[in-house]
Known about the structure:
It contains twelve helices and ten strands. By secondary structure, it is an alpha/beta fold. It has two domains: 19-152, Alpha-Beta Plaits (2-Layer Sandwich); 164-314, Molybdenum Cofactor Biosythetic Enzyme, Chain A, CATH 3.40.980. The chain has a six-stranded mixed beta sheet, with helices on both faces. Helix 3 runs antiparallel to helix 5, helix 8 crosses helix 9 and helix 10 crosses helix 11 (293-303).
Amino acid sequence: MGSYLGRERMNVEKKRGMFDVGAKPDSYRTARAQAVLNIKPNTAVMIRQGKSPKGDIVEAAKIAATSGAKKTSDLIPYCHPIPLDHIEVQVSVKSKAIEVDVTVKSIWKTGVEMEALSGACIGALTIYDMLKPVDDSLFISSVRLVEKSGGMGGFATKQWNKIRAGVIVVSDSVSAGKQVDKSGKFIVKALKDKNIDVIKYKVIPDDSSAIEKLLVKYSDVFALNLIVTTGGTGLSHRDVTPEATRNVIEKEITGIAEGSRAYGQRRTPLSMLSRGVAGIRGTSLIINIPGSLRAVSESLDFLFPGLEHALKMIEGYGH
Length: 319
């Protein structure tokens, strides 16, 4: 029993640490937290009269709260160091309490709740330190997150119907049986994990005519919502997937391809070499993804949840 518990404890300890947020895209995030410090009524009068023995508690609390928000990752072990774009501190002196409100804003990969909470805590503790010589009833009655917003979850689209998808692997070597497809099967699994029905999966050679015919078939005959191709987006003379795609789409969505390359370029200097395009044919969204497994993984990280919103728009639903 002892050795089993020891192994379990070791397994738990191995899992401790900061979450890996490297794959998450930056997004606008805000949080507001409040700490409440209870005081005697005569203490409130003294503060308003400017007779606090250690000086102006309001200005001191604002400075301390700002510093506390900035130093959150130094104080709390598993918090990420976050570039903060804005910190606003409000200190309200009531008849029996002092409220410290801290609002934090950032454009980054993870939320700023802890920064707001840390700022509010440090602000309240600073006031506590400054007032303890004159008020022995001080106590911090609450520290809470008032509100937060942002993150990719804020863009998630409620499922309005089942998404039907097709995956096309464009590769001479895979179609000839010289290599095993990994990227296409990765896409199939990733889409299924997101509750998307993968209706069609096919491997074809780097042939423009074959690519065009299959894209048209998946769009016009099978009426798939989403068609993802992998491979054939590079610089080789055999890489013709973007050209074939442009020949069949009715509207090109340049932002998808540009955003995907920008996302990938922050992770590898080779992302700029992808020529993939994206566009609409009928009610089908067609997206080219490079052929390497790493590029496929990064592209899928980038595409969601914006892709779901795009499909909803194509179906005629409002924002």
